[in-house]
Every structure is written in structure tokens, then in C-alpha cells.
């Protein structure tokens, strides 16, 4: 065993690192998510029922070419644990890791969208300042690192602070985010990926598409780390 490996194991013994999904101890070169969880996290299979439901999520918006979610979100499940760590515990590496894993797997499956740019769904500046970062930026950055598609967290802005979407009906969610996004800078691309953490009704993402359409974008690919069943 190399001295570097011995020191690594010694540090793990004194300062144990835990998997953010299952909270078991990380060993060796494992980072953020243990090997077992990386393999067993609940993927949205390309030919499964959840994937079929995704295809109809934005059926009324023909500019949205495709919709893909990486993982299935269930209450108290591992995906919820990971997103909780990302959004509320300050573990930014979770976002980079999940985004990278998603990008790797989409590229390997041949399903990577032919987009020119990844745009992350923005937080209001008040919430971003409180949290210290936008979790969707980290997901987009990780996806970009895996695929080479550039990303931007500055094109879209959220013009007003809105109440949380949690617990709202589909109609209430649409009203809550209606007209809330605007395009801050000139955009010279026509096909974009919009990246977010969790897809529920899709109201927020539809508003992002609406703002970007006004700015001249023509083709949209929706990518989220998780799909919430409700």
C-alpha cells in the first residue's frame, strides 16, 4: 500500500467522511456518494413508465423537443437526502457530482441533446444570497464538465421573490411563477438545455421557456436531476 493511501485511510479514521445518500462511511477514493449508491440510485429508465410520462409533461409546448430526468424522487429516499444536502446543508459538491453523473450517462447512452448552451434555472437574488449559491448552477456546471456543452447562470433572472412551490396545486404553481423570469443579456444561440433540480408540474420550466422564446431561442431540452411523483 502506498504512503498516500495509508495517510488517506488514517485521515478517514480520524475525520470520517459519510455518503450524502445513505450516510455510511466513505472508503478509499470514494467521494460524496458511495460506490453502492452511485450504482443503485433509482434511474429513470429510457423505456419505463416514468420516462413515458416525461414525454407528455410538456405536450402543449412544441418548442420543447425532449424532457429527461436522471433520478426518481421519493419521500425519505436517497435522492431526497442528496438534494437536501445540496440545498440546505451547503454540500455544493453534491450538485457537481450529480450533474457530472447525469452528463456522463446521457452521453454514454447516445441521448445527449444537440444543444448549444445549458441555462440553469435562476434563484431570486435574495434566496441566492441567503443560500450562498444556486443549486441549479452547480448541476449545470457538473453536466457541462461531463459533456463539454457550455453553461450559463447569468442569462436568466428571477424578477421577483416568490413563495415556495411546495404544497401548491398545478394551477397555483403556474400563477405563482407567471412572468417571473426575464432575459438579462443578449443570447445568440437558438437551442438550449434548461437545467433544474426537481421536475414536478413543470410550471417553473415553462416560464423559463417563455422568457427565452421572447429572446429568440427556438429549441428547448428540459433536463432535471430528479422527477417527483405526485
Automatic annotation (TrEMBL):
<dbReference type="InterPro" id="IPR029057">
    <property type="entry name" value="PRTase-like"/>
</dbReference>
<comment type="similarity">
    <text>Belongs to the ComF/GntX family.</text>
</comment>
<dbReference type="InterPro" id="IPR000836">
    <property type="entry name" value="PRTase_dom"/>
</dbReference>
<feature type="domain" description="Phosphoribosyltransferase">
    <location>
        <begin position="162"/>
        <end position="226"/>
    </location>
</feature>
<protein>
    <submittedName>
        <fullName>ComF family protein</fullName>
    </submittedName>
</protein>
<dbReference type="InterPro" id="IPR051910">
    <property type="entry name" value="ComF/GntX_DNA_util-trans"/>
</dbReference>
<dbReference type="Pfam" id="PF00156">
    <property type="entry name" value="Pribosyltran"/>
</dbReference>
Amino acid at each position: 500500500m502506498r504512503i498516500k493511501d495509508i495517510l488517506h485511510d488514517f485521515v478517514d479514521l480520524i475525520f470520517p467522511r459519510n455518503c450524502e445518500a445513505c450516510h455510511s462511511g466513505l472508503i478509499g477514493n470514494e467521494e460524496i456518494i458511495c460506490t453502492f449508491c452511485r450504482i443503485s440510485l433509482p434511474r429513470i429508465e429510457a423505456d419505463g413508465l416514468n420516462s413515458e410520462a416525461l414525454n407528455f409533461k410538456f405536450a402543449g409546448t412544441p418548442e420543447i423537443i425532449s424532457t429527461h430526468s436522471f433520478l426518481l424522487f421519493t419521500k425519505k429516499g436517497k435522492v431526497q437526502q442528496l438534494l437536501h444536502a445540496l440545498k440546505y446543508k451547503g454540500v455544493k459538491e453534491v450538485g457537481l457530482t450529480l450533474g457530472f453523473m447525469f452528463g456522463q450517462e446521457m452521453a454514454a447512452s447516445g441521448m445527449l441533446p444537440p444543444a448549444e448552451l445549458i441555462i440553469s434555472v435562476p434563484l431570486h437574488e435574495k434566496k441566492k444570497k441567503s443560500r450562498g449559491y444556486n443549486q441549479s448552477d452547480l448541476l449545470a456546471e457538473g453536466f457541462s464538465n461531463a459533456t463539454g456543452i457550455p453553461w450559463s447562470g447569468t442569462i436568466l433572472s428571477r424578477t421577483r421573490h416568490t413563495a415556495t412551490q411546495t404544497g401548491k396545486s398545478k394551477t397555483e404553481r403556474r400563477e405563482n411563477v407567471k412572468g417571473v423570469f426575464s432575459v438579462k443579456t443578449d443570447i445568440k444561440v437558438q437551442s438550449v438545455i434548461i437545467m433544474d433540480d426537481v421536475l414536478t408540474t413543470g410550471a417553473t420550466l415553462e416560464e423559463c421557456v417563455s422568457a427565452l422564446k421572447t429572446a429568440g431561442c427556438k429549441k428547448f431540452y428540459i433536463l432535471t436531476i430528479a422527477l417527483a411523483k405526485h
